[in-house]
């Protein structure tokens, strides 16, 4: 009969031989299959999902805040939601005639007469404030929106601007996502996207606000008559639910295929309280696969792919009767 020591030694050599065979291989086909399966699994885990969407087709059903309640200081031009009446100034559009998509958008000051200087933003900033947006299940998020910003008199007042900001609902500090100053004019619908990583700490519940500002009137200057218009459509936040990498999890956990932090396996495939020869043999069948189903005990270290670090860990954990 073989002694426990000699049986263990043979098992260790067998596992290490498997690592060497899979990692080197003569044909290389096995390693390509394993690499492909791992890439597919991780791509599925990190596929972005829509976490918030607003196309303004249902009016203000989601509860946006506008006017003084949003912090407006402008004397006119407060944001509204609906179908804008287009306006033209000096031969170019100042307010859009149509939303970017569909029949609704958010915009500054409805202008029923089509006069460019009527109901535009004057003497301050007008804010459009989003409802609270739940991003408590994600570690990554991207904000996408389609915007319109019209400024008639360029380089006249640095208080003329279009600004997008974000903050955690538990913080009073706003962080700027995008800033368009008094030197630009974007009077056409344009879609832009910005990562929120580094701007707000996720997971969190956040709010986003869009501001259009006209510098306050100063006697002797023409700033009171600057024509400022803003519009927003198709606001969307996408992200990955749960974790996207092991760094999002505790030291004793890894990011599994569903994007959840899961505890590492212990190598005990047969759940008999130890790691023995039967477990080492079962491990060989899982090597190169991803941690799922019957192979969950094989993922003892590293990422979701069962690889050489897991082989080393299970050998180190070998114990019990053989």
Q: Outline the biggest β-sheet.
A: 6 strands, antiparallel
CATH fold call of the largest domain? Jelly Rolls
CATH level-two architecture of the largest domain: Sandwich
How many helical elements?
4
Shape: rod-shaped
Q: Give the structural class.
A: alpha+beta
Tell me the series of helices and strands, N- to C-terminal: HHEEEEEEEEEEEEEEEEHH
Classified by CATH, the class of the largest domain is Mainly Beta
Q: For this entry, what is the oligomeric state of its chains?
A: single chain
Strand content: 25-35%
| Computed CA radius of gyration, to the nearest angstrom | 29 Å
Report the strand count: 16
Alpha carbon gap, first and last residue? 11 Å
Helix fraction by DSSP (H/I, runs of at least 4): 10-25%
In the residues, how many domains can be counted?
2
Low-confidence spans: 1-36
Mean pLDDT: 84
Which descriptors would you attach to this protein?
6-stranded antiparallel sheet, 2 domains, Jelly Rolls, alpha+beta, 31% strand, 4 helices, rod-shaped, 16 strands, 18% helix, 322 residues
Structure description:
The chain has helices spanning 4-24, 29-45, 277-286, 308-317; strands at 49-54, 65-66, 79-82, 87-89, 92-95, 105-108, 124-129, 133-135, 138-151, 161-168, 175-180, 186-195, 204-214, 228-241, 253-255, 261-263. It has 322 residues and is α+β, with helices and mostly antiparallel strands. It has 2 domains: 4-46 and 244-317, no CATH class; 49-241, Jelly Rolls (Sandwich), CATH 2.60.120.200. The strands form 4 sheets. Strands 1, 3, 6, 9, 12 and 14 form a 6-stranded antiparallel beta sheet that branches. Strands 2, 7, 8, 10, 11 and 13 form a 6-stranded antiparallel beta sheet that branches. Strands 4-5 form a two-stranded antiparallel ribbon. A hairpin with a 6-residue loop joins strand 10 (161-168) and strand 11.
């Amino acid at each position: 009969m073989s002694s426990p020591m000699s049986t263990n030694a043979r098992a260790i050599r067998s596992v290490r031989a498997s690592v060497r065979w899979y990692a080197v291989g003569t044909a290389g086909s096995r390693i390509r299959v394993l690499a492909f399966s791992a890439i597919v699994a991780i791509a599925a885990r990190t596929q972005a999902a829509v976490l918030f969407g607003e196309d303004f087709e249902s009016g203000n059903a989601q509860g946006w805040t506008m006017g003084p309640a949003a912090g407006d200081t402008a004397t006119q031009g407060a944001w509204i939601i609906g179908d804008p009446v287009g306006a033209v100034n000096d031969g170019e559009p100042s307010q859009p005639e149509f939303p970017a998509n569909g029949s609704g958008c958010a915009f500054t000051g409805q202008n029923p007469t089509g006069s460019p200087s009527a109901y535009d933003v004057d003497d301050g900033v007008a804010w459009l404030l989003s409802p609270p947006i739940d991003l408590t299940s994600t570690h990554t998020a991207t904000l996408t929106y389609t915007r319109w910003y019209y400024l008639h008199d360029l380089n006249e007042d640095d208080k003329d601007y279009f600004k997008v900001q974000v903050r955690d609902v538990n913080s009073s500090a706003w962080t700027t996502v995008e800033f368009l100053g008094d030197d630009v004019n974007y009077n056409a619908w344009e879609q832009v996207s910005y990562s929120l990583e580094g701007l707000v700490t996720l997971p969190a519940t956040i709010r986003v606000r869009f501001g259009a500002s006209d510098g306050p009137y100063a006697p002797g200057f023409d700033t009171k008559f600057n024509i400022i218009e803003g519009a927003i459509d198709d606001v969307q936040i996408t992200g990955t639910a749960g974790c996207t990498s092991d760094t999002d999890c505790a030291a004793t956990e890894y990011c599994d295929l569903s994007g959840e932090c899961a505890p590492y396996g212990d190598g005990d495939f047969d759940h008999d309280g130890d790691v023995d020869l039967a477990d080492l043999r079962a491990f060989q069948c899982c090597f190169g696969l991803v941690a799922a189903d019957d192979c969950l005990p094989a993922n003892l270290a590293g990422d979701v792919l069962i690889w050489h670090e897991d082989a080393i860990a299970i050998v180190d954990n070998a114990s019990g009767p053989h």
